[in-house]
Amino acid sequence: MVTSRPGSGWPGDPATTRTPVARSPVDVSLLAAAARDLRTLDARTSVCRACPRLVGWREEVAAAKRRSFQDQDYWGRPVPGFGEDRPRLMVVGLAPAAHGANRTGRMFTGDRSGDWLYAALHRAGLANQPTSVHAGDGLQVRGTRITAPVHCAPPANKPTPAERDTCQPWLARELQIVWPGLRAVVVLGAFGWEALFRTLAAAGVQRPQKVPFAHGAEVDVDGRTVIGCYHVSQQNTFTGRLTEAMLDAVFARAVTVAQL
Question: How confident is the model at residue 208 (pLDDT cuts 50, 70, 90)?
Fold first, then answer.
């Protein structure tokens, strides 16, 4: 198997063989807007084929595999959001990692970034376990949903502006669905920060004047608190730019704001 096929039994796969497939930016806009709930939205997101470069890369990685994962099947598809249907806290990242979520099929699962994120969520009382290894490992989060502005693994972890814009309707609709109950958003990194603020208008949310990204920055958006945090990438965690104490402080603040 090169990639996981919808309905083939992958743990947590929201799609079936009947899920409509977006093959162009217009398709993404139409299918996202018509999704009435997160389950439908996640299913449609998970089979999207609208960006040829990203489709080619994610499937190439899934076929070639990393040597240490040669005995494993790869998800090889867009990775939908993960967590509660009515979250009070949303965590926004960048995009799936080629051998992390692109392999496991769940946000921030199977790589060092996920190790840091879920350990912090566990310390904050937002996850039932500190590890996130594969989609069927029993991980659950409390009051939280984790997503990204780009749902496919991009080459060199750098989606193009066009790819970001093509994927935007998925995030816009996700925000529309969860916004009524949302109280806080933690954004990991400058890319996610820029993407979130670009998407607010498309989601029908009145956004404030643009605020530069900074670790610990806070912005009130329609009564919700958006908090900036350095991304949990290895280039930040290995160098000490982001420490566990810094990450814990961000989530402690988010828990307080979201009243979790």
Answer: confident
Between CA 173 and CA 183 the distance in angstroms is: 17
Residue 118 tokens, joined: 């879920």
Cβ-contact 152, 95 below 8 angstroms: yes
- As given in the structure block, the two tokens for residue 135 are 């989609």
CA distance 125 to 205: 29
- Is the separation of the CB atoms in 128 and 138 below 8 Å? yes
Q: What is the pTM of this model?
A: 0.97
DSSP 63-82: HH--GGGTTS----SPPPPE
* C-alpha dihedral sign at 193, 198, 199, 205: positive
Residues 107-130 have a mean pLDDT of 98
SS3 224: strand
Q: Which helix (H) or strand (E) holds 251?
A: helix 244-258
Contacts of 256 (CB under 8 A, 6+ apart): none
DSSP 84-111: -SS-SEEEE-S---TTTHHHHSSTT-SS
Domains and CATH numbers, the chain: 81-258 (3.40.470.10)
User: Six-digit token pair at 140?
Assistant: 């659950």
